[in-house]
Structure formats: C-alpha cells, structure tokens
Design goal:
This protein has 18 helices and no strands. With 449 residues, it is mostly helical. It has one domain (10-448). Helix 1 (12-41) packs parallel to helix 9 (165-189) and helix 8 (146-160) packs parallel to helix 10.
Length: 449
C-alpha cells in the first residue's frame, strides 16, 4: 500500500482536502444530472412553470432510490475503510462485493415497484391533473436508469475510499458532461420536453456506471471488485444495514418531508407553490454540496485512522470539518439572503412564481449555517461506526421536527409560509443537538482512548 493511499500519514487536513476537493467537484457534477434538467425545463420559453412543478413531484421517488443507494452503498464504505486501516484486504473485498450485490437486487425491485405504482404514488405526492402529465412523462423514463444510478453513486464511494478521488470525480464528470450536452438536444432540438430530459439523464448515468465498474474490476484498484465476492453474506449485510441505516433514514426522511411539503403546499397554495419548493430545494442542494463534499471526503480518512487507532488524528479531522463547514454555510446563507432573485431566476423565468418565491426562499434558508453542525456530527457518528446516534439524529431533524411542523404551522395561521419555516427551525434544533451530543460522547471517548 503506497503512502498516497495511507490516510494515517501526513497532515490530516491535507488528507481530507485531497479527498474532498475532487469529491466535491464530483458531487457538484452529480447534482447537474437533475439540476440541469430543472434549469432547462424552467426556461422552456412559454413562461409556464408546470413542467418544473411536474419534475418536482418526482423528487420523493428519486430520493427513495437514493435512500436505498445510501443504505447498501455508503453503508459499507466505513466498514471497507476500517478493514483497509486494519490491513485486512480480504474482508474489505467481501464487503465491496456484498454491497454491489445488494445494490443490484434493490435496483430491480425499486424499478418494477415504482413503475407499476407511479400513478397513485404521484397523486399521493401532491400532483394535480395538470402537473401529473409532466411528472408521469418524466418518471416512467427515469426509472429505466435506476440500476445505472445506483451503481454509479453506490459504488463510487469505494473508489474514493481507496484513495482515488480523481477517478471518483471523473465517474460523475463524464456522465454529467454527456447529460449537459444531450439535454438541450433532446428537450429543444428534438422537441421532447420533459421526456427528453429524462432520456438524457439515463444515458449519462449508464456511461458513468460503466466507468465505475471498469475501474473497480480493473488492475488499478487496490482492492478490486471480484466476481467471486459478489454475494450476500448475512453477517456483512447486517453490519452494512447498521451503518447504512443512518444514511437511509436521512434520505428516507427527506422523501417523507418532500411528500409532506408537496401535499401541504398543494392544499394551501396550489401548483405554483409546489414549483417554488422545487426551486428552493434545488438552490439548497447546490449550496449544500461543498460542506457535504468536505465531510464525505473526511469520512474515509477518519474511519481509516480510527481503524488504525490514531485517535488524535480522528479528533483533528472532526475539528477541521466543523470549522470549514461553519465558515462556508455562513457565507452561503448571506449570499441567498442578499441575492434571492438571482438564485431563483436560475431555475425559472415565470414572473409570477419569482415574485412570490423570493420571500419563500429567504425564509427557507434562514439558519442555514446550523446545517454545518448537523453534517459534522452526523458524519462523525457514521465514520466511527456509531449507528445508534447516527440513526437517531437522522430521524430527529426530519421525521420528528420537520414533518410535524410542515403539517402544523399552516394550520396555526402561517399558511404556506409555515411549510418553508419548518426547514430553518429544524436546522437550528436538530443541528445543535446532533453536534453537542457528538462532542459530549464520541469526542470525549476518543480522548480517553
């Protein structure tokens, strides 16, 4: 094993940055898969936001797919990194193959189930007769690429965990570049609209999946994916479930939140507010990426050093995550509060939606800086294998705080504003509770060990 791939050597912050920068670029490009679709659909030239609203209604389904990807993919990465740190490549290889088998199995089940049930699902998620046309047109094509999406996102973490963040970055850069090129061709050139956006997405995802598998099966991988290890082991699967459940719940509760938001907004405001929430979520995804890239880049470094019993290096990584994340999210919050029209205008040219949406976007982003505490605490719990705390705080912010507030605040007289207020309240309460608990439990335990 070369020094370059040994995370126990060199300054911790340099190891994290070396992992995080390419990973952040990769995640930014990954986001472009869906964000570029929304940008083009929001500027189709008719001043109508219905196509954007329709695509927004598919978010819970896409999020559900990503939840299972996180469960079976990212759930195994900390285990894989710990075994690398403990110098046990055979066990690491079995974890890699087990994770891949689980991703394939779940992709088949999700594709079939969501396709058959897409009509009742979309109406349950807040679709109207008008927006359903666009949502259904997008979703029935998007689902075909489920297996490609899950392989790309779920297995790419194992490339980064082996110390090849640039290869991991290219996994998404290649696919997103293809998506950016194909989107205007299919949407405008071939006049396929929403269907064209979905088609461009699955083609680009397929190319990315081929790239990821080519590397993992190839000779450059330190711990390659072996056909003989692509099987489900009861013990390994149980461990993957334990760690991946936090990510699954985080993504799964995002799905529940999206359903609650869309259905409540449909009841209190109609399609235009569902479209505004689609824009707000898109802007949040963009601004969340750098801090997400930092903590995700730090995770294999922290896990590796924990497995190698380098506890002071683990603490150094946690401190770095907290400082960088807090500084960045504060700057991002200020930019949205000061220039909401600019960010909203990226996704829509509907003047009616923009006029209403600017205020909603400012409300939605209030307290965004507290997300850094949630990211730092959550990623630390997961990196060190503390599934219990990781799962609890995943549930706390979304399921226990956001969903009830989304339902209650509009009923208490806040109307549609109440739906947008639920997010900042959860950021403050959930983020603070998560970080303080991490410092008082895991961080103190590291000092004793």
């Amino acid at each position: 094993m070369t020094d370059k791939n040994d995370f126990s050597q060199g300054p911790v912050w340099k190891r994290i940055v070396a992992q995080a920068v390419p990973l952040t670029i990769a995640q930014l490009v990954q986001l472009l898969y869906n964000v570029v679709d929304r940008i083009y659909l929001g500027h189709m030239g008719d001043g109508n936001s219905m196509a954007l609203t329709g695509v927004g209604l598919t978010f819970p389904v896409v999020t559900l797919i990503m939840a299972f990807t996180a469960l079976f993919g990212m759930g195994g990465v900390p285990l894989f990194s710990m075994e690398r740190g403990a110098k046990d490549p055979e066990k690491a290889s079995k974890i890699l193959g087990n994770s891949f088998a689980l991703l394939l199995m779940s992709a088949v089940i999700l594709t079939a189930g969501c396709y058959v049930l897409r009509r009742p699902i979309l109406f349950a998620f807040g679709a109207s007769q008008a927006s359903y046309v666009y949502a259904n047109e997008y979703l029935k094509i998007y689902l075909i690429g489920t297996v490609f999406s899950m392989i790309t996102t779920g297995m790419n973490g194992y490339i980064n965990a082996q110390g090849f963040p640039r290869i991991g970055m290219l996994s998404t850069v290649i696919g997103a570049t293809i998506n950016i090129i194909l989107d205007p061709i299919f949407i405008f050139g071939l006049d396929k609209g929403v269907a064209g956006a979905a088609l461009a997405t699955i083609i680009s995802q397929a190319v990315s999946a081929v790239w990821v598998l080519n590397f993992l099966f190839g000779k450059k991988a330190i711990i390659p994916l072996k056909l003989g290890n692509i099987k489900i082991h009861k013990g390994i699967t149980k461990d993957i479930f334990k760690l991946g459940m936090a990510n699954f719940i985080m993504q799964g509760t995002n799905c529940v939140v999206q359903i609650a938001c869309n259905s409540t907004l449909q009841n209190y405001g109609g399609d235009v507010y569902v479209g505004i929430m689609t824009v707000a979520n898109s802007v949040r995804e963009i601004f969340s990426l750098p801090v997400s890239g930092i903590v995700n880049g730090a995770q294999p470094v922290i896990s590796f050093n924990y497995g190698a019993k380098k506890y002071e290096r683990v603490k150094s990584g946690i401190r770095f995550n907290t400082f960088i994340g807090t500084a960045y999210t504060f700057i991002a919050w200020v930019l949205v509060i000061l220039f909401p029209r600019f960010w909203f205008g990226i996704f829509s040219d509907d003047l009616h939606m923009i006029g209403i949406g600017i205020k909603m976007l400012q409300i939605y982003f209030f307290g965004f800086v507290f997300m850094a505490l949630q990211f730092a605490g959550q990623s630390t719990f997961q990196a060190l294998g503390d599934a219990r705390h990781s799962i609890f705080f995943s549930l706390l912010r979304k399921a226990i705080i956001v969903v009830p507030l989304t339902m209650l605040l509009p009923m208490l007289g806040f109307g549609v504003k109440g739906v947008f207020l639920a997010e900042p309240i959860s950021n403050v309460l959930g983020g603070t509770a998560c970080y303080l608990t991490m410092r008082l439990t895991v961080y103190r335990r590291l000092s004793k060990e």
